[in-house]
Design brief:
six-stranded antiparallel β-sheet; five-stranded antiparallel β-sheet; 48% helix; extended
Length: 564
């Protein structure tokens, strides 16, 4: 009995250590796979749109029309072609804007998403003595091509990336052009991920935290913080050698020897897996801390331990052979599957199933399914993000029935052109709309609303914004408007709206009749004030018998139709 016990102990002790090692190794490698997949996914999302913008900017910088114009800036034909090329690309840039500095003169040309500077793209001439123009002169020293710089405002939670593309001909600089892109929403989405046991952040090359779910850790001014600051990535870890480990990971991904790398460090007194990726276009690192014990429950290995405990009653030699065949060999195969899955090869995982229903078989099936589904889940998540972004934009700024702007969308259009000059507001509603609903039904009322919306779109140009103000009321916002232009617009609107009878769902015809109120607001007036003046004019039009147009003037204000 003593010899059997000694032999049993001799087998049990090393077998127990071997099992723990394989389990820990499998958990660590699976956790590392998840950490690096998460980092690569965030890197792909963040750089996808950025790379597209850089490609567009690089294509624009190689345009022959731009180069010809830079050679002879004063030639009207070359100028028209150059501006036309810039405007063509502006409509494809995500930011909707561009800038171009002619190298010989230092003249700065610019236009924004609202096309506010159409026909007047020249803004000013750069001065080497001005601090605000220093970016241009430092860019001139760079090689030909597009160079990126990040402008991160932690207070406003805005992170914008500027693309400065240097156009050279030999040693001569013809100019610098480019655009910008806002990555704020992407960064907030990554750092505020609600996944339990996962903490993501962005840090710069010095390790200063640029984005984190805890705003107290965000470095507001890098030049005021030092590497020992609480806003540094290195201040979060406490284990011996952890700082050197983080620096090594950052150096590895910066050198592009690997796209993502990971290691274990001590965070809040607990061993934690950290994954690091490098967003080379931004000069930032995406750092993800993962609590493996929270993400992967080690209790899932309990059935294997029970199986091992039952087998320990056998003779030492039989125990070793059976344990090796039933446990160690299969766990080693599972570990090999994890190794292949980490490299993106899921073939061994698909071929591994042996059909056994014991603990290890179920564990193998579960872990295999998890590894195979990582890639599918990533693609599904990307698709959902795109779908929800489009849906949120539609719900936020568009009227669901007509497709026109809603009040929020019109307010945004007004905000984009604020301060540019006087603007016009045309407000109208459908005469006796309640009677239409009562007499012909709500389906007929909806048909009238849609018909008016479509007709309204035919008489407004690209600069104007059409919106459904509420119910049967519609509004037109016209930036940079004159009194004569406002009168012409109201005539065109009235003519288009009442030109033809409206076809109802039952086939009947309904004559269209509207009342219009309009006003010309001063520069800086609020949209609500202008709308109230137009509403006062609309009220006068209805009082005068409907089916007519009234433009707000001072006599209405003196008559008691005041504006809030």
């Amino acid at each position: 009995m003593l010899l059997v016990l000694l032999g049993f102990a001799a087998v049990a002790v090393p077998s127990s250590f071997a099992f723990q090692f394989i389990v820990n190794s499998t958990v660590a490698q699976l956790g590392t796979l998840f950490a690096e997949k998460q980092v690569l996914y965030d890197r792909h999302r963040g750089l996808g749109s950025l790379i597209r913008e850089v490609s567009l900017a690089e294509t624009l910088s190689g345009s022959q029309a731009i180069r010809d114009w830079a050679h002879d800036e004063d030639d009207p034909v070359l100028r028209r072609r150059g501006i036309g090329e810039l405007e063509h690309y502006r409509r494809h840039f995500a930011d909707g804007s561009y800038f171009f500095v002619v190298g010989t003169s230092g003249n700065y040309y610019f236009n924004d998403a609202s096309n506010a500077y159409a026909g007047d793209q020249y803004r000013y001439t750069l001065d080497p003595a001005k601090h605000d123009d220093a970016w241009y002169y430092s860019t001139l020293a760079l090689a030909e091509g597009c160079h990126l710089n990040v402008n991160n405002d932690a207070n406003l939670r805005v992170t914008k990336v500027w693309m400065n593309c240097v156009i050279r001909e030999g040693k001569n600089v013809l100019g610098v052009l480019g655009t910008g892109i806002d990555l704020s929403s992407f960064i907030q989405e990554v750092v505020n991920i609600p996944q339990k046991g996962v903490t993501s952040m962005f840090v710069d090359r010095q390790g200063m935290i640029q984005a984190h779910r805890d705003e107290q850790l965000v470095s507001l001014a890098n030049f005021e913080d030092d590497p020992d600051s609480k806003r540094s990535l290195f201040s979060l870890v406490s284990g011996p050698g952890d700082t050197e480990t983080l620096k090594r990971l950052m150096e590895d991904v910066t050198a592009e020897s690997v796209l993502a790398d990971s290691a274990f460090v001590t965070l809040d007194g607990k061993e934690t897996l950290v994954g690091v990726g490098y967003l080379d276009k931004l000069g930032w690192y995406n750092v993800t801390f993962m609590d493996i014990d929270t993400i992967i429950d080690r209790r899932m290995f309990a059935p294997i331990g029970l199986l091992i405990a039952a087998m320990m009653g056998l003779i030492a030699i039989v125990f070793v052979l059976v344990f090796k065949r039933q446990v160690l060999d299969r766990l080693a195969a599972l570990e090999n599957v994890v190794h292949h899955a980490r490299r993106g090869n899921y073939g061994p995982a698909l071929a591994m199933g042996d059909g056994r229903q014991d603990e290890i078989g179920r564990l193998s099936a579960a872990l295999t399914e998890m590894a195979v589904s990582v890639d599918d889940n990533t693609r599904q998540l990307e698709a959902r993000v795109r779908e929800r972004t489009v849906e949120l934009e539609r719900l936020a700024f568009k009227d669901g029935q007509t497709g026109l702007l809603n009040r929020r969308g019109l307010a945004a259009a007004h905000a984009r052109s604020a301060g540019e000059g006087p603007f016009g507001v045309v407000l109208f509603d459908i005469d006796r709309f309640k009677q239409i609903n009562d007499s012909h039904g709500h389906a007929a009322g909806d048909a009238v609303i849609l018909a008016m919306a479509r007709r309204l779109e035919t008489v407004t140009d690209a600069d104007a914004a059409c919106a459904r103000w509420g119910g049967d009321e519609f509004i037109i916002f016209v930036p940079n408007c004159t009194a004569e232009g406002l009168r012409d617009l109201t005539k065109a609107v009235m003519s288009a709206l009442i030109g033809e009878a409206i076809v109802l769902p039952d086939g009947g015809l309904l004559p269209a009749s509207v009342s219009i109120g309009a006003c010309l607001a001063d520069t800086g007036d609020k949209l609500d004030v202008a709308a109230a003046m137009a509403d006062a004019a609309l009220y006068s039009a209805k009082q005068a018998g409907r089916g007519r147009t009234v433009i707000f003037d001072r006599d209405m204000a003196r008559a008691g139709q005041h504006v809030a």
